[in-house]
Amino acid sequence: MDKSQIKEFIAARVARELSHGDVVNLGIGLPTLIPKFLPAGIKVFLQAENGIIGAGVVNDDTRDQLHIVDAGGQPAIAAPGGSYIDSATSFGLIRGGHVDVTVLGALQVDAGGNLSNWIIPGKMVPGMGGAMDLVVGARKVIVAMEHTQKGNPKILRRCTLPLTAAHGVDLIVTEMGVIAVTEQGLELREINPEFSLDDIKAATAAPLKVTPALVSMR
Amino acid sequence: MPEIITAAAAAALIPDGATLMLGGFMGCGNAHRVIDALARSGKGNFTVISNDASMPGGPTGEEFYGTAKLIHNRQVGKLIATHVGLNPEVATQTNAGELELVLLPQGSFAEMIRAGGAGLGGVITPTGVGTLVEDNPFVERKIAIDHRDYLVMKPLQADVALIAGYYVDRCGNVWYKGTMRNFSSLMATAADTVIAEAVHIVEIGDILPENVVTPGIFVNYLVDGGIG
Predict the structure, then answer these.
(1) Residue B223 has pLDDT above 90, yes or no
(2) Residue boundaries of the structural domains of chain A
C-alpha cells in the first residue's frame, strides 16, 4: 500500500466503529477521510468544535469561508438538521460526554492509553487546540495513525513527549491492526493479513497481548 | 444605544498595552475592519486573548488574515491562545523571545472567558490534568472532587473585546452567520468595552428578540462595513 492507500485503509476500518446517530468529532488529516467510508444507512452528526453540530458537505451554493468554517479553518456548512453553536456550548458537549466518538492522530500513544499529539518541545509548538478536551470528554477515543513514523515505533510502553491527556485512549487503528487499550495493557484484536504477528510486535515498543479471537482486519 | 463609529475611531479608542479579546476562529468571525485599522495605527504591546493567530493567506486574498496582521506587525507582546500552528510567525517570534505565548486547552479557554463575564471565580475542569497545563500560570490549583482530579482555572477578562456579527441592529443586538460567533458571544460579556463590527447594520426590530445571540446591552460601539 502507498501512503494514501494506507490512510484510506485505516479510515475505512475506523468508519465501521461508528454507529447510526453518533455525535462524532474528527481530527484534522487522516480522520477527515472517514465519512466517505461510512456504511450505507449509517448517519452520524459530525461536530466541528469551533461551532457546528451536524456538519455537511460544502458545495458552490453554500461555500462561505468568511463566515462558515470547520475546525481546520476550511469552508464548512451545517447540513439540514444541524446547528451552529458558540465555543462554550461546543466544549460543554465535549467535556459533558455528549460526543460519542472522537478520532485523532497521534505522535505517540502508550500501553496506558496515554496520548501525545500536541507538542514536540523545542521543535513544534502548535498548541493543544481542542485535543485535550476531546480526549478527556469524548465517550470513545480512537487513535487513527500509521503504525510507525519512518520505521520508528509510535506505540510505546510510555509516552516520552508531553501528554495530551492521561489514560484517554480506547482503541488504536493502524495499517497493521486494531489494538484495544485494556486494564491489562494493549491487546491486538485484528491483524492486517499483509503483516505477520512478528512484524507487528517488532513495530510496537510496548507489550502486546494477542486476543484468542484474533481476526483479519479488512 | 451603542455609538456608530468608523473603524479608525474604534482603533483610536484602544491604548498601547491594552488587553484585547479578539473573537474569531482562524480568521472567521474576526472584526476585520477594526483589526485592519489597528494594524495601521502603529500602536502595540498588546496582550491578545484569541483562540488562534489566524494564518497567512485566507479567503480575502490578503497576505495576512485578520489577527495574523497584528502578529506580523509585532504589535502583540503577549498572546493567550489555544492553537497557533497555522501561523508560523508565532513560533518565530516566540523562539526569538519577542512574543510571550500562553497556551490553554480550547474548552478551558472558552469557559474561562465565560467565567470572566459571568462573575465566577474560576472554572473547575478535568481537562489538562496530568499534562503540562498543570504548570500554566492560569491554573490556581489542582483539587479532587469525589475522587476525580480537576484544575481550577482563573477567569479571563479584557479591556476591549473586538467582535463581529453579520446583522447588528442599532441597539447593538447581534446575529451571527454560520460559525462567526465562536468566542465572540462569550467575549462580549468579559471586556470593559465591546466594539462590534457588523457586516450589515439593520434597524431595530429587524432581528427578532428570540434570534438575538448577543444582547445589545453588552455592545458599546458599532462599526459598519464588515467583510462579506
Answers:
(1) yes
(2) 3-216
